[in-house]
Amino acid sequence: MNTTISTSEWQIMRVIWTLGEATSNQIIRILCAETDWQPSTVKTLITRLIKKGIISHNGAARDRIYTATITEKVAMVDTLSTTLHEMCAMCVGDALVNALADTPLSQTDISHLQALLAKKSKTAPPTIACNCIPKGWEACHDDREKK
Amino acid sequence: MNTTISTSEWQIMRVIWTLGEATSNQIIRILCAETDWQPSTVKTLITRLIKKGIISHNGAARDRIYTATITEKVAMVDTLSTTLHEMCAMCVGDALVNALADTPLSQTDISHLQALLAKKSKTAPPTIACNCIPKGWEACHDDREKK
DNA sequence: TTTTTAAGTTTACAGTTGTAAACTATAGAT
DNA sequence: ATCTATAGTTTACAACTGTAAACTTAAAAA
To answer: Do B55 and B108 fall within a single domain?
Structure first.
């Protein structure tokens, strides 16, 4: 089961997660109002999400009720973690500072993040090594120099 | 100029960013050792990145030197911001706490993040509203109930 | 009962991505 | 001068995405 949610599919999921459960009619009405999609586009995306196993429905032949098979939180944490792990570990902290500067956070969010950081700082290393190229391969720099 | 960097292309970029500049030979040697890619795969990805304008090279016909046209930081912040904005604003904070729990951060990273959070907390609202469905559309819930 | 509406299914089609073989041409080795 | 290795270019091909029209069928309206 491919658990990758594409950008467009993500929109469908947000509606379903927020409403808890939804009919295609609801999803179509909401998303066609917010985006310039046609109803067909939403239908296609719903079908793909079903095929991917990310949503399911009560067996009705019509006016089905769709629900998510994974929680919003799991999907979000998963996506974020994947993105962060795709990047240079040494640079992630700095990038986060810059990305979060522009991200709305509530007082509660901030408190929770502060608590996490306080805890992490107890065991955090002074520096994180770059993990973009394996150690020893710095020798690659010499390749050109020897010419 | 399409500035989207795919997952595979990201690997190429990390090598170039880390070395500052690199020949295809270096990129191929490093990535073929780290992944199970063939040299051709790396060549294709380099070509695509050139076409996208994300890297460029000195005009040499052979043994070109490739460099990035955007900094690693810009690319990272951009990617992170895009990802965060794709998600429910109300849930982002919570997802971050969970994603960061598993992300290595240095003491310095943590200090910088703490400074940012301290600053943000001065003006942060008590809560962030869900922005998954437009206000007023909660009426969608009623659709099914009226049947 | 006939018509209309809309939910779900099929088909479409181009662009992106992952992955790579084959081909071309040239710089360096012999 | 000839050969060889390899850097760069072309071609390939399936899966995934974005976007949507067309078709089918059943429920609701007239």
So the answer is: no
Digit-coded pLDDT (tens) for A121-143: 999 999 999 999 998 776 544 34
Q: Report the alpha-carbon distance of residue B22 to residue A144 in Å, rounded.
A: 9
Is the CB of residue A42 inside 7 Å of nucleic acid strand D?
Answer: no
pLDDT at residue B36 in the model:
95
Helix axes A72-85, A7-19, angle to 10 degrees: 150
Q: Confidence class of residue B141 from pLDDT cuts 50, 70 and 90?
A: very low
Q: How far apart are CA B111 and CA A93, in angstroms?
A: 10
Question: How many structural domains are present in chain A?
Answer: 2
* Domain, as residue range, for A16: 7-68
- Do B92 and B62 belong to one domain? no
According to the model, what pLDDT value does residue A136 have?
Answer: 78
Q: Write out the H or E segment, with its range, that includes residue A137.
A: none
Q: Which amino acid is at B98?
A: N
Looking at CA atoms only, how far is residue B9 from chain A in angstroms?
Answer: 11
Query: What pLDDT is stored for residue A44 in this prediction?
Result: 98
Terminal-to-terminal C-alpha distance of chain A: 50
Nearest to A96 among B93, B113, B121 (CB): B113
Do the Cβ atoms of B76 and A93 come within 8 Å? Answer: no
Q: How many Cβ atoms sit within 10 Å of the Cβ of residue B134?
A: 10
Q: For strand D, list residues 61-90 of chain A whose Cβ lies within 7 Å of it.
A: 61-62
- On whether residue A80 sits in a domain, the answer given is no
> What is chain B's mean pLDDT, rounded?
92
Q: Do B18 and A132 touch (CB under 8 A)?
A: yes
Eight-class DSSP state of B57: E
Same domain as A55, residue A18: yes
B4 Cβ contacts chain D strand, under 7 Å = no
